Amino acid sequence: MSKAGKSEAVERPVNFIRNIIDEDLAKHKYESVRTRFPPEPNGYLHIGHAKSICLNFGIAEDYDGACNLRFDDTNPAKEDLEYVDSIQQDVCWLGFKWPGEPCYSSNYFDQFYAYAVELIEKGLAYVCFLNAEETREYRGNLKEPGKDSPYRDTSVEENLALFEKMRSGEFKEGECVLRAKIDMASSFMCMRDPTLYRVRFAHHHQTGDKWCIYPMYDFAHCLSDGIEGVTHSLCTLEFQDNRRLYDWVLDNLNDFQKPDRPFQYEFSRLNLEYTVMSKRKLHQLVDDKLVEGWNDPRMPTISGMRRRGYTPASIRDFAERIGISKVDSMTEMGILEAAVRDDLNKVAPRSMAVIDPIKVVIENYQDEPQTLMAPVHPQNETMGKREIFFGRELYIDRADFTEVAPNGKYMRLALDKEVRLRNAYVIKGLRADYDADGNVTTVYCSYDPDTHGKNPADGRKVKGVIHFVEASHALPAEFRLYDRLFTVENPAKEEDFESVLNPESLVVKYGFVEPGLLNSAAEQAYQFEREGYFCRDNQCGDKQVYNRTVALRDTWSSR
Question: What are the catalytic residues?
């Protein structure tokens, strides 16, 4: 799929939503395009929300329109300013802007109330006193129609008085609700006299204690769209049936009797392998302390992915790769990881890190450590050079040494075998020390001083290159090796999704990095040569802590 751009000369993505917009504009149904991204502030955003952000803001940019950031804050019992702040940060980090200040559904509570009164006056809404169990019984099921509430034919005057009493706090929570009067025999459950307002004595983060009744999401959402002049209301497929209620509300209110009112269109939500997208389940992981928090790098939250080292460009590219359709499917984790690899391969500086170190002593080197130069990026000379060091004592990775090379194709260090140190010299294994458990502690080597930047003069072939860090300049570092959070592709299908958590989703190692990383910035990405892409953790202050974003290549597809 081609990349989107503002210019008409740049080919835009093609999907059914853009086809609808093109047709609407061609028919002059709307003068301009306005979309919205409407999260409920009851949790942190995840990668599924990122798909919607890229769609709504991307369309607005491409059509020279606008996209509102709106908080659908109709349930104060589950909402928090922490979530409001985090959502704004995530949208900005992804590279998008909204016009003016963020919008809130709570900004329109007075208008919502007036619209509810209008529906009552038209005989299209009533106050119902059925309790929750009775409401379920009267509602029917998919095979049987519902039956009318005994309160359905209450007079308009009495309903107006009862609704005012609800607003004044004269009824307890759960004692009554305001319901739309639609069709209890409808084949669509959402049209069987759905609730429009309920009593809720909760302090609201925007309106304080002004209200004790709050509109339901389905009532508030379409009205917010209409008030804000949204043209195309884009949501995921689980709201497909609710489109009928969306249209019913707007069609029955005087302010929206116009052809350019909003219309709802649905697209498939993102389902990603080895994770969960349910906000309820993500809350459960946090509340049960199975993860460090909402920004744990194993979480599919935008803040967690940011901390892990994903870039805004990689997430936007991922959203473009998976596209927009009306077909629900499971997206392979490999597509997301390929997007971040492709981006980091171009922009990440190279460095060396030894994650599982063993010491190497160069016996024929007696001088002070020497400074060598290495490219910051081998394919981008404009990024310059960096200093590395070579000396008598070095660290190499434990996996890069074996006492006896297993075959002629072995490309690492072994006794009586030569290997090249990255950007440095050829060394040869001589002997090794071991601890009481038989683990290597030190490897003794010799080096060829004439092999810096060139092959041995006598023409002998040296197979393999390994990375290293010179010991006296090395910075101790912690490496957090993150992997899939779950062991099964679709944990949401499990009866107990917590039972399939991956016990090796985080492995912590302690090793060394180059001294040039001393003042590396939080979230700065690096390719640790031969190890993977890592970034400096954004929660550990001055500590040298690096989170693995992704391995250099996909190791899961072959499992």
Answer: 40, 269, 279
